[in-house]
Amino acid sequence: MKFDNPDWNAHESVYLLHHEHQHRSGPLWSYLGLLKILEEIVNIYLIVSLVVVGLDAQAYYLFLMAMISFLVTAVFLVISLLETLIDLNPAYHWIEFSCGVASGISLGVASTVVLVALPRGYVITSMVGFLNTIIYFVDALNRYRIAVAPRRRLFWTRPVQVVYDDE
Prior knowledge:
It is found in: Membrane. There is one protein chain. The chain is mostly helical. The chain has one domain. It contains 6 helices and no strands. It has helices at about 10-25, 30-55, 60-80, 85-90, 90-115, 125-150. The chain is elongated.
């Protein structure tokens, strides 16, 4: 594809490959769907580990950010399962990109606060928060690539000769 077409666009191929794979195997088992599932698993781990270790005053911020990220990611996961808003609204990927960046930044700041201010019991939880930050930024980068890609072409247009039965 790259060598046959001089107008080859990497962003367009990322968008098309994502959607072709998504329609063949379902949105949940695509690359971005698996990233969403991984984000949810890590968010659940963060929430459970913070509850088990105990919530200190500084840990409430990480707990709150993990809960908000969990809920926002769950909403986007349900939307991607429905597949209606994704195809109808071209701004969907921009919205998901901005939410991914916001979740990544807030989880990164909260994990830094927990790592600096709290004792050793919270170190592993803080490192898992940093891991979740990386996962959110990878997802946001992929959403950005899809958002800046030209829209998918549904039909190839070529001149068609129309023949009427009356002639």
